[in-house]
Write a structure and sequence with these properties.
Number of helices: 6
Structural class: alpha+beta
Oligomer: single chain
Number of strands: 11
Distance between the termini: 39 Å
Shape: globular
Largest sheet: 6 strands, mixed
Radius of gyration: 19 Å
Helix content: 25-40%
Strand content: 15-25%
Length: 235
């Protein structure tokens, strides 16, 4: 199972960042693995130089205000955190820590696992909402289907759905199914059924032709499940 790799653009140089992270967050980047107060997760912190055209990468995923774009474009270094979570509680503890990093001055959040990228404001709004998982998932469209990307670190398969029925909110269905599997214990085995909040019933089926090559960075070793719409349940 892949680890999470999450990056935070910082307005501090590589020379300034260690002192900032230590004084504001008690995060010692000189150590290979660290823990922070209130969390049982071990983090591997890595500081790297600024990346060219980072604002364009963020804007490609989610719109930025002119101020956000300028700040991210002017970032001076990147803090990467590599870690794993074993429970919903550990994931919540990471979210708490991530928000502290943003409150201290980080400019945004980039998930290397999915390519999802958010300004500090948008990320905080999403994780304070009903489905924090959405901040870590991306979507990929093929000629006839939509796939999620980024669920392996949650020990979950990625999901897909046909785009043929234009009446369906494909993104909403996929993220709701993923949330049910990751946090509510929904069975995602092939043949299992799931009912969403609109009383629509879907059956999970193994997907044998994902758009990602086995062994690629995007490949999910947990597998892929296609959501097949069934008759709606009686309300």
């Amino acid at each position: 199972m892949k680890s999470f790799v999450i990056a935070f653009p910082l307005p501090f140089s590589l020379q300034e960042a260690p002192e900032f992270l230590q004084s504001k967050l008690n995060l010692d980047t000189s150590k290979e693995r660290v823990m922070v107060a209130g969390s049982s997760i071990f983090y591997k912190p890595i500081l790297q130089n600024a990346v060219a055209d980072l604002a364009a990468i963020f804007a490609e995923h989610s719109p930025l205000s002119s101020e956000e774009s300028a700040e991210i474009a002017a970032h001076k270094s990147l803090l990467f955190l590599e870690f794993s979570v074993q429970s919903a509680e550990e994931f919540e503890s990471f979210l708490t820590f991530a928000k502290k990093i943003l409150e201290a001055g980080a400019l945004g959040v980039y998930s290397e696992n999915s390519g999802a990228a958010w300004s500090a404001k948008t990320f905080t709004e999403i994780v304070n909402g009903d489905v924090p998982l959405e901040a870590f998932v991306n979507f990929v469209e093929t000629a006839d289907s939509m796939f999620t990307l980024g669920l392996e670190p949650f020990a979950a398969p990625d999901f897909c759905i046909s785009l043929k029925d234009e009446k369906l909110d494909h993104r909403a269905i996929l993220i709701s199914a993923a949330d049910a599997v990751v946090f509510d214990g929904q069975d995602a085995a092939s043949g299992a059924k799931w009912k969403n909040e609109n009383n629509q019933i879907f059956e999970f089926k193994n997907e044998l032709t994902p758009p990602f090559k086995k062994g690629s960075a995007e490949w999910n070793a947990e597998g892929y499940r296609r959501l097949i719409a069934k008759k709606s349940a009686a309300k």
